[in-house]
Amino acid sequence: MTKLQNDIFLRACKRKNVEYTPIWIMRQAGRYLPEYRAVRKKADFLTMCKTPELAAEVTIQPVDLIGVDAAIIFSDILVIPEAMGMHLEMIESKGPRLYNAIRSINDVNNLKQVDAVKDLKYVLDAVSLTKKELNGRVPLIGFAGSPWTLMTYMVEGGGSKNFAEIKKFIYNQPKAAHLLLDKISSSVAEYLSAKIEAGADAVQIFDTWGGLLSPADFQEFSLNYIEKVISKIKRKGQPVIVFAKGVHYQLDKLAESGANVIGLDWTMELGKVRSKIGNKVAIQGNLDPTVLYGSKEKIREEAVKVLKSFGKNNGHIFNLGHGILPDVPPENAKFLVDTVKEESRRFHGKK
Amino acid sequence: MTKLQNDIFLRACKRKNVEYTPIWIMRQAGRYLPEYRAVRKKADFLTMCKTPELAAEVTIQPVDLIGVDAAIIFSDILVIPEAMGMHLEMIESKGPRLYNAIRSINDVNNLKQVDAVKDLKYVLDAVSLTKKELNGRVPLIGFAGSPWTLMTYMVEGGGSKNFAEIKKFIYNQPKAAHLLLDKISSSVAEYLSAKIEAGADAVQIFDTWGGLLSPADFQEFSLNYIEKVISKIKRKGQPVIVFAKGVHYQLDKLAESGANVIGLDWTMELGKVRSKIGNKVAIQGNLDPTVLYGSKEKIREEAVKVLKSFGKNNGHIFNLGHGILPDVPPENAKFLVDTVKEESRRFHGKK
Which of residues 6-35 of A touch B (CB under 8 A)? Predict the structure, then answer.
């Protein structure tokens, strides 16, 4: 393996000394970049995911254009339900559709276990190719949806407003729900292990819909399975990041899930969370993504607030509190990256 | 005024002794009731709001059918922007549209101050008529949107996915935003005062979109104006309830806003919040609305969890953590009301 020239992101994940606070941006390989839209013109979203050359190209774009300290492989969390046998379509401006939504224990039994090396070879090829093309410039992050978030899509058949179907499913068919969560957990663990084997330097688990649940339900239907996944990932020191959007409770338990890094959305105060969960794990986040609509002055002001809130300490990875929005000016994203690298230096070094 | 036969809701708002935990349900006058849908067939949503006889009829339905301890006047928070001069339409299955969205200080200056007695006479007439028809059976709640939530609709021109426009507005035109919030605050305070004058026994402020904001922005753009509204409401002991969905931070500050009751969504633990904010205010909430999709057994189990979480103490009003969903079986709503009245008795009385 090529030695990493910039490993500051990995050092921060492990709460080691850094010169500045590393930064990457959720959805950094995305529609706000004209260079991404140019590739997207040639191929639809899923074709991009399934063509390693295209996936590698857009994965590397923000490293070149924005200057982030880590790349994240371009893909989608719903490749797992697809590999489990569901028919997936991405409908322009409407979002994903998973046909024949899961509604019974029979449906669950009919899903197959994912063999990542066979069923998701295209992702692993994209990881290997990206690693080669990155040539050690920055680390590469692999990712997956949490079992709860994937189950939500599989039962709803796509996005949802009220999440009625998934809630009916867990309340009225808890056995089927737990069986499905178990099945997804094994697939996710095997998938993330394969990504690491293919070269990913870290992995992130996205629990996009964890915040829909009451604290007790979050424990039962989401956190338990995140823990299961983490315990099963085959890794040699590669950090695991868990981002559970809207989950403002049980952060102490999340910090004990086996994750090395907890990602926080912009409604949390980093300093308060840090003093609550202590220095067990690193923290990633959490600028309000819409601040990037503001002036450069505003972006600097708010970025410094985030840095100050975390304070002088190891273990902070700067990020937005959710994905970058598609109509953000790319120069604002670049300005944020430059600003964080510059302003954060005074929070590191001699204390 | 007719004396109230059932004032348990008002006593709980003031943290006085009660025999059982009173209960009402957000959106209790709504689509899940066949009797509501029958009225809705005769008139569109806004016509219902503007016809006191129809508004009174659907307001009283859940008192008769479900047995709640308070009625809440049937209306919509967007009647205020309409009264300020915006053109409002409710588009079937798409939600509200406010035309010529506010995007500049000129737009703000062109809005008029609401004269509730003149501009919103139909709501006040609905309140008086409902009070008369309720004939003292239960108290009547009036409501309004918070200034921040109303501004969000006025700037977005309706609902939104990413709330890009409102965030651009507050970050790039903060002066215009504060001017608009001031203007809305006066209108809301005057409107709620008029509702009380017309007979409302309590009022609730809905901050539906408070949870979109970072803690600092919530303070600046929402909480400050909620406080302003509360301080200006003319009342003689009528309690004020504030429900700020998704606001899990600064609950201590919300408790000092002048509100008598804080409404919580289902991601909060009542017991934890109570021990944090002390006994300054009463707490309303917070069963996950989707639990009503479950079996009766499940509904009882989860309702008891909520009661236990609050514990043996005065100052709890049972409610859902958000509005009741349109496809919930009405018998499940009635079962919840009966269950809370029955199960909560052991949390009151001699301690």
Answer: none
